[in-house]
Amino acid sequence: MPRRCPIKITAGIDVGSTYTKSIIINENREILGRVIRPTGFKLGDISRIIYQQCLIEAKLNEGDVDYVVATGIGRHQVAFKDLHVTDLTASARGAAFLFPGTRTILDVGGQTMKSIRLDETAKVKSFRLNDKCAAGTGAFLEKTARYMGFSTEEIGPLMATSKEPVTISGVCAVFAESEVINHLSLGTPPSDIMRGAMESLVERCVQLMKRVKAEPEYTLIGGILQFETMARTVREHLDSEVNVPAPDLVQFVGALGASILALRRLEKLSENRTRPTVDVP
User: Fold this and answer.
1) Regarding the domain delimited by 9-84+251-274, which CATH topology (the fold level of the hierarchy) does it fall under?
2) CATH class of 101-243
3) Which of 238, 259, 269, 233 is nearest to 90 (CA)?
4) What is the Cα–Cα distance from 88 to 93, expressed in whole angstroms?
5) How far apart, in whole angstroms, are the C-alpha atoms of residue 39 and residue 110?
6) pLDDT tens-digit series, residues 58-116
């Protein structure tokens, strides 16, 4: 028989376009386990796999978890969920938990980029998504690195050695790639090309933030924010301080938000059960 825990435990599953994340927390908002894996094309299978791995990391059985909320593009494929929410809602809740003063979120993922403006209660007030082009996402940086023979893990160290970033002005990934090829043929150092690609991405980020009338505090999330250069460049363009979660949490903000929303859902269900009924004469 599964062990019943004395306190409430919830899980958030974020099925993203590039990575799927799972996080388990208790009612004190303490993280008990977290797992991230590439999404692939079997969304239902990967969500189940990482959930099971997250349970193992948290030393829990499936019956110990009281509520599961799914989010992300594959949220409808999570068969074991109790509820699903949009990634906008989950990201808003997660970012506000980590940084309560958050008013604008920039979320740069592998295939999408989102700018979200929040009200004082952490509810989504407005949002904008990037155009359907990889030049506005982390995939553009990964593709640029791979073309030059570098892995994703080498992007950060490579940019750190840049002396003079070159301009990458292409409005789409195809044209931008042509510019990369041209720079390489001219003998431009890969580090300067990589930094130029980052600058191009940041310009698109800032433009998107302007479209939602961004206001501080700014919180930056998504896998690409693992690179300190990205946050620093956004900070320079905004001429303002920005919040960035710890590297081991920056990709989990949506999943964290989903798990927190699961706790709130449990609280509401509990309130409804304990609310006294009134007899009508």
Assistant:
1) Nucleotidyltransferase; domain 5 (3.30.420)
2) alpha beta
3) 259
4) 9
5) 11
6) 999 999 999 999 999 999 999 999 999 999 999 999 999 999 999 999 998 877 889 99
